[in-house]
């Protein structure tokens, strides 16, 4: 049974993939059960936060026993839809986009880049790292043809909103935005923006303040 994500705090939701990754590590190590303290030490998250996060999903563990690793694997696989792959379209194949193509996601995640778009690519397409790359003029047709659901936006800032507007007309439900632009979308579309320069500046700020 799926839980209503709207009732779960956003901070908790963001930690779910991390929990799944570390539970996988315990399973690979042959561990049958794990305590919140062990998770805390491995993930560098305090055990009270872990117990509070897990409390949103009912009784996942037993006091004095901890959490059954295989049951936790099945739980997170279900709640994160790990058995249902989502096809991704990469829009913009610059330095960051090329890194995504070379890495792709199918080895460790339930997502896979199936098609990409770049202004330097021909309309008929070409292969880069085993992924077909087309000119953006073919976006609407090829996005549907390859069964893409989630677009990753890695285009130059000047093109970000224009490409977003086209995606909105295509009725996508979410966009992962790696541009520094705060793109505008209807309320029905979820946008996650990852601005690497802001993340870097935030890290520098905390590093400098930790020294004081």
UniProtKB/TrEMBL annotation:
<comment type="subunit">
    <text>Homodimer.</text>
</comment>
<keyword id="KW-0520">NAD</keyword>
<dbReference type="InterPro" id="IPR009718">
    <property type="entry name" value="Rex_DNA-bd_C_dom"/>
</dbReference>
<dbReference type="InterPro" id="IPR036390">
    <property type="entry name" value="WH_DNA-bd_sf"/>
</dbReference>
<dbReference type="InterPro" id="IPR036388">
    <property type="entry name" value="WH-like_DNA-bd_sf"/>
</dbReference>
<keyword id="KW-0238">DNA-binding</keyword>
<dbReference type="InterPro" id="IPR036291">
    <property type="entry name" value="NAD(P)-bd_dom_sf"/>
</dbReference>
<dbReference type="GO" id="GO:0051775">
    <property type="term" value="P:response to redox state"/>
</dbReference>
<dbReference type="GO" id="GO:0045892">
    <property type="term" value="P:negative regulation of DNA-templated transcription"/>
</dbReference>
<dbReference type="Pfam" id="PF02629">
    <property type="entry name" value="CoA_binding"/>
</dbReference>
<comment type="function">
    <text>Modulates transcription in response to changes in cellular NADH/NAD(+) redox state.</text>
</comment>
<protein>
    <recommendedName>
        <fullName>Redox-sensing transcriptional repressor Rex</fullName>
    </recommendedName>
</protein>
<feature type="DNA-binding region" description="H-T-H motif">
    <location>
        <begin position="18"/>
        <end position="57"/>
    </location>
</feature>
<keyword id="KW-0963">Cytoplasm</keyword>
<dbReference type="GO" id="GO:0003677">
    <property type="term" value="F:DNA binding"/>
</dbReference>
<dbReference type="InterPro" id="IPR058203">
    <property type="entry name" value="Rex_bacilli-type"/>
</dbReference>
<dbReference type="InterPro" id="IPR003781">
    <property type="entry name" value="CoA-bd"/>
</dbReference>
<comment type="similarity">
    <text>Belongs to the transcriptional regulatory Rex family.</text>
</comment>
<dbReference type="InterPro" id="IPR022876">
    <property type="entry name" value="Tscrpt_rep_Rex"/>
</dbReference>
<feature type="domain" description="CoA-binding">
    <location>
        <begin position="81"/>
        <end position="182"/>
    </location>
</feature>
<keyword id="KW-0678">Repressor</keyword>
<dbReference type="GO" id="GO:0005737">
    <property type="term" value="C:cytoplasm"/>
</dbReference>
<feature type="binding site">
    <location>
        <begin position="92"/>
        <end position="97"/>
    </location>
    <ligand>
        <name>NAD(+)</name>
    </ligand>
</feature>
<keyword id="KW-0805">Transcription regulation</keyword>
<keyword id="KW-0804">Transcription</keyword>
<dbReference type="Pfam" id="PF06971">
    <property type="entry name" value="Put_DNA-bind_N"/>
</dbReference>
<dbReference type="GO" id="GO:0003700">
    <property type="term" value="F:DNA-binding transcription factor activity"/>
</dbReference>
């Amino acid at each position: 049974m799926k839980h209503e994500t709207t009732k779960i705090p956003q901070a908790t939701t963001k930690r779910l993939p991390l929990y799944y990754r570390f539970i996988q590590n315990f399973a690979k190590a042959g561990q049958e059960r794990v305590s919140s303290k062990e998770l805390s030490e491995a993930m560098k998250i305090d055990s009270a936060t872990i117990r509070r996060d897990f409390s949103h999903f009912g009784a996942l563990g037993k006091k004095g026993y901890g959490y059954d690793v295989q049951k936790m694997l099945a739980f997170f696989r279900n709640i994160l839809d790990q058995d249902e792959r989502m096809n991704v379209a990469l829009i913009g194949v610059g330095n960051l986009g090329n890194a995504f193509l070379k890495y792709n996601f199918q080895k460790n995640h339930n997502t896979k880049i199936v098609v990409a778009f770049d202004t330097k690519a021909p309309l008929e397409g070409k292969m880069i790292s085993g992924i077909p790359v087309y000119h953006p003029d073919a976006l609407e047709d090829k996005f549907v043809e390859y069964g893409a659901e989630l677009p990753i936006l890695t285009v130059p800032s000047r093109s970000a909103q224009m490409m977003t507007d086209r995606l909105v007309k295509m009725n996508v439900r979410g966009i992962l935005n790696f541009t520094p632009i705060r793109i505008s979308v209807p309320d029905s579309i979820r946008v996650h923006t990852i601005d690497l320069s802001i993340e870097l500046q935030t890290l520098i700020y905390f590093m400098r303040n930790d020294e004081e």
